[in-house]
Design brief:
The chain is an alpha/beta fold. The protein has 12 helices and 11 strands. The protein has a single domain, classed as Indigoidine synthase fold (3-Layer(aba) Sandwich). 51% of the residues are buried. It binds pseudouridine-5'-monophosphate and manganese (II) ion (MN). The site of pseudouridine-5'-monophosphate has 19 residues, from helix 2, helix 6, helix 11 and helix 12.
Length: 302
């Protein structure tokens, strides 16, 4: 029984029972994606942004052998301390549960859990995707998006990735990418990757209408790609040099698997003197706000 392995926080249980809009939030960004103390501040700001926009936040993580959907602030703070935490993607779920490890959930594991709980919207910063060059590395965020009927609100895939290949992967597996007020696919820290989205939407109602029909047709995940707030955005050409250096360092130090993304984000933050942390913070909060609007539109009758 899946219930053995999952627990809803009281605020989430209540919201789902009353059919109120709920937005799921991940914990890998808290435990591994941002430096302290920004990580906890942002996690709480995202929850506040969801509430201000009229939805209920459900931050997800693994504690004491259960996937908790709707962590309390004191529990979120434990994830922000970052001690002895496993980065849990889909393949790690059973391991973390059986071994009773504290686990931060990636977009993939968060989407999986949200779908099980009947939460149709997840907000994050940048999804994982196809990494550049060799060795072969594709985030489980992609196949999970192709498998679960959830809207993931993000600022595209992380700029460290091969965005063209990531976009092609999503196309092959039938995941539409909607641009929030833009025809350009954002590149996480910057507003444009130079690649197009599949359709521009200018309101939550438009995004929700497409999601509903996608699901009625048997489709699964959708991406809503929100450009980072302009005041914080870092131009892509300025970042590219820094990304190249960070990638070369990662390759030289032989990093592999789940350690690669946190290492690159940390290095790029250091080399831009925190500029990427500032934009990452801003876009996470903005994406949470947009996700709440879409959750509300989905909860309203069509
Ligand atoms: N968004 C951010 N920062 C992050 C992430 C998303 O702004 O650190 C996390 C998400 O949890 C995503 C993960 O699932 O990075 C991707 O990791 P990987 O490339 O190892 O699959
Ligand atoms: Mn990977």
């Amino acid at each position: 029984m899946i219930e053995t392995w999952m627990r809803l926080g009281p605020h989430v249980q209540e919201a789902l029972a009353a059919r109120r809009p709920v937005v799921a939030l991940e914990t890998v960004v808290v435990a591994f994606g941002l430096p302290r103390p920004a990580n906890l501040e942002v996690a709480l700001e995202m929850e506040a942004a969801v509430r201000e926009a009229g939805a209920i936040p459900a931050t997800i993580g693994i504690l004491e052998g259960q996937v908790v959907i709707g962590l309390r602030p004191s529990e979120i703070a434990r994830f922000a301390e970052g001690k002895e935490i496993l980065k849990v993607s889909r393949r790690d779920l059973a391991i973390a549960l059986a071994q009773r490890r504290m686990g931060a959930t990636t977009v993939a594991a968060t989407v999986w859990a949200a779908a099980r709980a009947g939460i149709p919207v997840v907000a994050t910063g940048g999804i994982g995707g196809v990494h550049r060059g060799m060795p072969f590395d594709v985030s489980n965020d992609l196949p999970t998006l192709a498998a679960e009927p959830v809207v993931v609100v993000c600022s595209g895939a992380k700029a460290i990735l091969d965005l063209r290949a990531t976009r092609e992967w999503l196309e092959t597996h039938g995941v539409p990418i909607l641009g929030w007020g833009t025809a350009d696919l954002p590149a996480f820290y910057s507003p444009s990757s130079g690649l197009p989205v599949d359709a521009r939407v200018d309101s939550a109602a438009e995004a929700a209408a497409i999601a509903r029909i996608h699901w009625a047709l048997g489709g699964k995940g959708l991406l809503v790609a929100v450009p980072p707030p302009p005041a914080w955005a870092v131009p892509a050409d300025r970042l590219e040099q820094v990304i190249h250096e960070a990638l070369a360092e990662a390759a030289a130090s032989g990093l592999q698997g789940r350690e690669v993304t946190p290492f690159l984000l940390r290095r790029i933050a250091e080399r831009t003197e925190g500029e990427t942390v500032a934009v990452n913070r801003a876009l996470l909060v903005e994406n949470a706000r947009v996700a709440a609007q879409i959750a509300r539109a989905l909860a309203a009758s069509p």
